[in-house]
C-alpha cells in the first residue's frame, strides 16, 4: 500500500515538476490569436507597484497566460465542453447548426426609453452633416445590420437575442434621422427578404464580401446622381473566390479550431482594380487592399485592407473621378477595398484610433466630394470612437 | 493569491514544499520559519498593505498573552485581554465596518458624515478571530501562552487557513507547532484532500457560480419562477462547494505539513433541521461564536428571555461577520427566527415528520437564506423573492442550464451527501482501491488544470495586438 502512495506522489511530483519546468523554459508566446489579444507581459518591479498590489497581480496574469502550451490546454478544455458536455454556449459563443453567434446577457428593455439615446445620436449626426455640407461635400450615413441581428432568428428559443432592443432602437433612430433630415441609407432595406447566409459571415460578426459589395453598390447608387460620373463594379467583374483554409472569425476563433461551423473567406480578384498608391497613417506603403495570407497563415477578417487603420489614403491618379472619405470601424474595410475601383482618392478614418483632428479640420485640409459614415446596427447610438462623430 | 491559481499551484506551493521538506525534520524551528516566511509572503502577495496590520495584530496578541500569563493580579490579566480585544475588534470595525456604519448613519439620520473609503484587508475576519480566541483561551487558562513570538506569528498567519479559514483554535495546533511528524501517509492524505478541494472549486463551484450570477443579474421580467429557483439552487451549491473546497484545500495542505485542522463542513445539506444545519455548516465559526460570545453572555443559564437575547446577539453578529451589509444582518436574524421557532415549537413537530419532509424543509429554508445572503440591495432581494413565488415564466433557461451542466449537477448533488465519499473509500485497505483512488485524483487534477486554464480565456473582439 505504501508503495502505491509513494508511487502516486512520485508521479505527481514528476508531472507537476515537469509541467512547471516546461512552462518556465517554454518559448514565450506574445500573442493569443484565438483570443485576439496580447498575452500578459512580465510585470515591472517598482516599490509603488508592489505597494499597490499591481506587481503581484501582474505575476498572477503572467503565470496564467504562460503555462506550457496554453493554447493546447485551452483547446482540450474547449473540446470537453463542445463534444463531451455538448454545451450550447462555449466561451460566450452560441453554437447553432450553421452559424455562430454571441451569447447575450438577459436584460429587460420593456420600459427602456429609446428616445434620448436616438435623439442625442441624431443631434450629433445633424451637426456633422451641416459641417460636411458647409465644407462642400456630400454626406451619407450608412447603417448596416450586425451579424447577430441578421441571424436573430437563429438563436435557440431559450436564449436571448436582444432583438427587442436592437429593433426598437433601430426604428427609433431611423425615425429621428428622417425627422432631422439626415441623409441615410440602411442596408437592410436592400437585403430585405433575402437569405442572410448570402451576405453575412457565419463565424464572424461582420458581413462577408457579398454584404460589403451590396453596401458598396448602395453607396455608389445613392451618390452617383450628385457626383461626376464614376465607374461601378459589377457582380460578374468581382471574380469572387474563396481563400483556402478556415476563416478565423471573431466567434470560431474563440473555439480553438474546434468549431462545428466552418467558413472560407471570400475575396475578389485584385486584378480588377486600377493601379493605386497607398498611405497608412501618413506612411507610404506597398500593402495591397487585400492582404492575402501566406502558406500556413491564418485567414482573418484583416485580409480586407490589412486590418483596422487610424487613417488610410489611396490614390488612383484618375483626377476625373470623385474622391470619397469613409468613416467607420472594421465594417468599412472591404467597402474601402471595393471603392478603389470607383474613386480617384479614397480616404478612410477610424476614430477609435485616429485622434489628430476632427472631421471639419480634416476636410479643411483634405477636401473630398463625399463623406460616407458606415455604422453597424449595434453602434447607431454609441458615442464612443466613430460614434463621437467629431 | 488564491489556491486555485497558477501562481499558487506552479510557483508558490512547489516553492514552499521544496524549501520546507529540504530542511531535515529535526530542525523543527527552521521548518516553522520556512512556513512563516512563506505565509507572510503569501499574504503580502495578495495584500501588500494589509501585512502590516496583520503583523501588528500578531504582536499585540503575543504581548497580551504574555501579559496575561505573567500577571499576578486579575486587573493586569484583564488589561491584557482588553488590549487584545480592543486591537482586534478595533481593526475589524475600522477596516470592515466603518464605511458601512457611516453610510447607514447618513441614511438613517440624514447626516452628511464623510465616508472613509477604507480598503478591507483580505482575511481580516479570520486572523482577528484566531488571535482573539488564542488570547481569550490564555486568559481562561485553557492554553498556555506561547513564549516564542515566531510561533504565534505562525499560528495566526499560517497560509493554508489565512484568508478563507477554517478558524483554527490555538489549542488545536498548539502542540503541533512545536512537535509534529510529517510522513508519507499524512502527505498522501493531504494531497488527496487538496486535489478534491481544487476539483470542487474549479469544476463545481465556479460553474454553479457562473450560472447563479447570470440568473441573479437577470431582470425580473425575463427571469420567471423556475429560473429564479434554479438560480437560488445554483448559488446554494456554489457557496457550499466554494467554501468547503477552500476548507478541504486548507485541511489538506495542513496535513502535508503535519497539522490537523478540525473539519469545517459535515454535509450540511443533508441536515434535518436548521439547528442541525448549523452544526454542520462552517463549524469553526459557529463554535467560535458559541464559545466566545454565547456562553460568556450567559448562554441558556440565565433564563429564557436572556437566552433569546443571547441568541439574537449571536446571530446578528454571525450575519455581520459575513460582510458589512444589512442583508447579512437580515440573513443572521432569519436564522435566529428559524432557530427560535425550532427550539420552542417547530423542533418537536419536525421530530414527528418523515426524514424526507424534514430535509426538504431544511433545504428550502437554507436556499431562501442564501437568496438573502446574495442580494445586497433590498430592491434586488424583494424582486428576487417575488420571482420565487410569482409562479410565472417558462423552463427555457432552466433546461439550457441543466443541459449545459449535466455532469456538474449530477456530481454536485451527489457530493452534497456522504455517498460519494463512501464509494471513494471502497477497498480502503486494498491495493486496487488505492490505485482507483489515485487514478480518480489524477483525473480530477487534470480536469481542474484544464478548467483553470479555460478560466483565463479572455477574448477581445475589437483589439489590435
Sheet with the most strands of chain B?
Answer: none
* Mean pLDDT across all amino acids of chain B: 91
Overall SS class of chain A: alpha/beta
Quote the distance from N terminus to C terminus of chain A.
75 Å
Most extensive interface, chain pair and sizes = A-B, 67 and 59 residues
Q: Name the beta content range of chain A.
A: 15-25%
Q: How much of the residues of chain B is beta strand, in percent?
A: under 5%
**Beta strand count of chain A:** 17
Low-confidence stretches of chain B: 461-465
Order of helices and strands of chain B: HHHHHHHHHHHHHHHHHHHH
Helical content class of chain A: 25-40%
- For the record, the count of structural domains of chain A works out to 2
Strand order of the largest sheet of chain A: 7-6-17-15-16-14-11-12
Q: State mean pLDDT of chain A (0 to 100 scale).
A: 91
pLDDT below 50 for ≥5 consecutive residues: which ranges of chain A? none
What would you say this structure looks like, in words?
The complex is a heterodimer of chains A (390) and B (465). Chain A is α/β, with parallel strands linked by helices and 390 residues long. Chain A has helices spanning 2-25, 47-51, 54-65, 70-84, 115-134, 147-150, 163-180, 187-191, 196-199, 209-223, 235-238, 332-339, 359-365; strands at residues 31-32, 37-38, 89-90, 93-95, 100-102, 138-144, 184-186, 241-242, 247-248, 266-267, 277-280, 283-285, 299-300, 311-315, 323-328, 345-349, 370-376. Chain A has two domains: 1-68, no CATH class; 115-388, no CATH class. In chain A, helix 10 (209-223) packs across helix 12 (332-339). In chain A, the strands form five sheets. An eight-stranded mixed sheet of chain A has the order 7-6-17-15-16-14-11-12, sandwiched between helices. Chain B is mostly helical. Chain B has two domains: 6-180, no CATH class; 186-414, no CATH class. Chain B contains 20 helices and no strands. The longest helix of chain B has 37 residues, at 220-256. The relative contact order of chain B is 0.09. Chains A and B meet through helix 1, strand 2, helix 3 and helix 4 of A and helix 1, helix 2, helix 9, helix 10 and helix 17 of B.
Amino acid at each position: 500500500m505504501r508503495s502505491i502512495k509513494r508511487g502516486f506522489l512520485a508521479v505527481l511530483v514528476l508531472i507537476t515538476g515537469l509541467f512547471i519546468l516546461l512552462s518556465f523554459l517554454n518559448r514565450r508566446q506574445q500573442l493569443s490569436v484565438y483570443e485576439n489579444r496580447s498575452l500578459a507581459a512580465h510585470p515591472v518591479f517598482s516599490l509603488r507597484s508592489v505597494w499597490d498590489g499591481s506587481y503581484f497581480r501582474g505575476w498572477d496574469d503572467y503565470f496564467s497566460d504562460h503555462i506550457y502550451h496554453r493554447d493546447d490546454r485551452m483547446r482540450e478544455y474547449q473540446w470537453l465542453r463542445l463534444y463531451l458536455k455538448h454545451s450550447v454556449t462555449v466561451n460566450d459563443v452560441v453554437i447553432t447548426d450553421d452559424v455562430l453567434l454571441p451569447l447575450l446577457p438577459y436584460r429587460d428593455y420593456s420600459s427602456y426609453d429609446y428616445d434620448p439615446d436616438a435623439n442625442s445620436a441624431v443631434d450629433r449626426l445633424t451637426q456633422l452633416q451641416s459641417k460636411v455640407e458647409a465644407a462642400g461635400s456630400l454626406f451619407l450615413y450608412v447603417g448596416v445590420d450586425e451579424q447577430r441581428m441578421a441571424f436573430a432568428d437563429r438563436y435557440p428559443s431559450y436564449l436571448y437575442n436582444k432583438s427587442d432592443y436592437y429593433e426598437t432602437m433601430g426604428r427609433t433612430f431611423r425615425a429621428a434621422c428622417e425627422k432631422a433630415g439626415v441623409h441615410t441609407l440602411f442596408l437592410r432595406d436592400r437585403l430585405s427578404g433575402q437569405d442572410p447566409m448570402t451576405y453575412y459571415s457565419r463565424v464572424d460578426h461582420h458581413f462577408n464580401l457579398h454584404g460589403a459589395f451590396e453596401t458598396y453598390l448602395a453607396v455608389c447608387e445613392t451618390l452617383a446622381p450628385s457626383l461626376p460620373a464614376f465607374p461601378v463594379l459589377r457582380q460578374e467583374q468581382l471574380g469572387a473566390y474563396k481563400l483556402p483554409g478556415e476563416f478565423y472569425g471573431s466567434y470560431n476563433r474563440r473555439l480553438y479550431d474546434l468549431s462545428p461551423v466552418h467558413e472560407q473567406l471570400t475575396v475578389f480578384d485584385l486584378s480588377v482594380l486600377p493601379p493605386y498608391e497607398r498611405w497608412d497613417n501618413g506612411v507610404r506603403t506597398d500593402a495591397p487592399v487585400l492582404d492575402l495570407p501566406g502558406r500556413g497563415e491564418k485567414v482573418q477578417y484583416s485580409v480586407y485592407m490589412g486590418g483596422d487603420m487610424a487613417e488610410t489614403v489611396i490614390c488612383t491618379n484618375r483626377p476625373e473621378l470623385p474622391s470619397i472619405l469613409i468613416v467607420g470601424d472594421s465594417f468599412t474595410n472591404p467597402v474601402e477595398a471595393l471603392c478603389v475601383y470607383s474613386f480617384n482618392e479614397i480616404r478612410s478614418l477610424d476614430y477609435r484610433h485616429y485622434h489628430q483632428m476632427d472631421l471639419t479640420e480634416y476636410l479643411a485640409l483634405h477636401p473630398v466630394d463625399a463623406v460616407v459614415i458606415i455604422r453597424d446596427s449595434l453602434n447607431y447610438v454609441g458615442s464612443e470612437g466613430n460614434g463621437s462623430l467629431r | 493569491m488564491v489556491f486555485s491559481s497558477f501562481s499558487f499551484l506552479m510557483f508558490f506551493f512547489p516553492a514552499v514544499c521544496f524549501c520546507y521538506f529540504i530542511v531535515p525534520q529535526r530542525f523543527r524551528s527552521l521548518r516553522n520559519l520556512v512556513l512563516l516566511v512563506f505565509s507572510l509572503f503569501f499574504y503580502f502577495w495578495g495584500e501588500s498593505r494589509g501585512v502590516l496590520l496583520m503583523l501588528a495584530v500578531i504582536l499585540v496578541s503575543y504581548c497580551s498573552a504574555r501579559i496575561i500569563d505573567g500577571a499576578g493580579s486579575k486587573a493586569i490579566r484583564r488589561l491584557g485581554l482588553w488590549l487584545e480585544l480592543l486591537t482586534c475588534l478595533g481593526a475589524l470595525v475600522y477596516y470592515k465596518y466603518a464605511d458601512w456604519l457611516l453610510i447607514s448613519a447618513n441614511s438613517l439620520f440624514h447626516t452628511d458624515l464623510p465616508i472613509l473609503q477604507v480598503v478591507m484587508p483580505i482575511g481580516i475576519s479570520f486572523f482577528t478571530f484566531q488571535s482573539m480566541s488564542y488570547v481569550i483561551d490564555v486568559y481562561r487558562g485553557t492554553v498556555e501562552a506561547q513564549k516564542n513570538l515566531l510561533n504565534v506569528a505562525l499560528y495566526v498567519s499560517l497560509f493554508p487557513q489565512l484568508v478563507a479559514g477554517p478558524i483554527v483554535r490555538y489549542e488545536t495546533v498548539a502542540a503541533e507547532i512545536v512537535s509534529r511528524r510529517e510522513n508519507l501517509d499524512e502527505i498522501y492524505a493531504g494531497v488527496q484532500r487538496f486535489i478534491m478541494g481544487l476539483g470542487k472549486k474549479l469544476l463545481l463551484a465556479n460553474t454553479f457560480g457562473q450560472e447563479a450570477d447570470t440568473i441573479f443579474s437577470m431582470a425580473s421580467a425575463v427571469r420567471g419562477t423556475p429560473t429564479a429557483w434554479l438560480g437560488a439552487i445554483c448559488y446554494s451549491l456554489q457557496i457550499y462547494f466554494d467554501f468547503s473546497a477552500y476548507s478541504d484545500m486548507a485541511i489538506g495542505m495542513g496535513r502535508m505539513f503535519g497539522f490537523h485542522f478540525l473539519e469545517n463542513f459535515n454535509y450540511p445539506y443533508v441536515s434535518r433541521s436548521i439547528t442541525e444545519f448549523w452544526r454542520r455548516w462552517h463549524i469553526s465559526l459557529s463554535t467560535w461564536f458559541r464559545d466566545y460570545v454565547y456562553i460568556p453572555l450567559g448562554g441558556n443559564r440565565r433564563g429564557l428571555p436572556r437566552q433569546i437575547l443571547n441568541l439574537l446577539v449571536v446571530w446578528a453578529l454571525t450575519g455581520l461577520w459575513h460582510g458589512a451589509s444589512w442583508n447579512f444582518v437580515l440573513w443572521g436574524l432569519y436564522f435566529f427566527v428559524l432557530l427560535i421557532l425550532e427550539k420552542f415549537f417547530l423542533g418537536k413537530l419536525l421530530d414527528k415528520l418523515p426524514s424526507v419532509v424534514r430535509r426538504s424543509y431544511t433545504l428550502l429554508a437554507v436556499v431562501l437564506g442564501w437568496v438573502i445572503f446574495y442580494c445586497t440591495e433590498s430592491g434586488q432581494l424583494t424582486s428576487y423573492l417575488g420571482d420565487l413565488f410569482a409562479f410565472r415564466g417558462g423552463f427555457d433557461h432552466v433546461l439550457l442550464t441543466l443541459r449545459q451542466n449535466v455532469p456538474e449537477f449530477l456530481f454536485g448533488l451527489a457530493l452534497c451527501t456522504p455517498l460519494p465519499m463512501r464509494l471513494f473509500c471502497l477497498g480502503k485497505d486494498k491495493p486496487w482501491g488505492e490505485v482507483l483512488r489515485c487514478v480518480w485524483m489524477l483525473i480530477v487534477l487534470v480536469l481542474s488544470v484544464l478548467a483553470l486554464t479555460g478560466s483565463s480565456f479572455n477574448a477581445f473582439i475589437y483589439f489590435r495586438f
